[in-house]
Amino acid sequence: MRPLKLVAVSAGLSRPSSTRLLADRLAEAARRRLAEERAVEVSVVELRDLATDIANNLVTGFPAAALREAIERVTEADGVIAVTPIFTASYSGLFKSFFDVIDNTALVAKPVLIAATGGTARHSLALEHALRPMFVYLRALVVPTAVYAASEDWGTGGNSHDDGLAARIARAAGELADLMARRPAVTDTVVPFEQQLAALRP
Could you tell me the fold of the domain covering 4-200? Predict the structure, then answer.
């Protein structure tokens, strides 16, 4: 049985980026949960590095090699973590453009964890009014817990009224891992063409 493939998509624009940091923490938490039962391959797609290719693809309809490879990784993944900074109360244009160039059937029934970063907690509802509807439209299986990290969340442990960022990461990653683990297993077995033809004969 092949390893599960987990891909984190980060739309952070700066280096270092809190968006990438959140993507990494979510991916590592999900990997640890899944590794108890299955081998896991984790990779990250940095949209910052693909910005020009994404813009060109929107105009020409043809992806460059690097963008094509990133699209294939997301399309073939068993689970996706999608993280964007929040600009003007919604996802970034780069984030939306990347998912615009992916075939709109590529995420059907695929487990997706949505997350976002921002300067203030006031933008946390963007996860529910912008990101979740987009992935529901694409017919992905969006995990119940969405993770938002405001500037003040980094380094806090939470209190009786707030789970804290670490707890939210653990809960969301666990939900994603559970969905990925329940997906039908895909093996790399190839059925010879002659055998396929024989199965069609009456």
Answer: Rossmann fold (3.40.50)
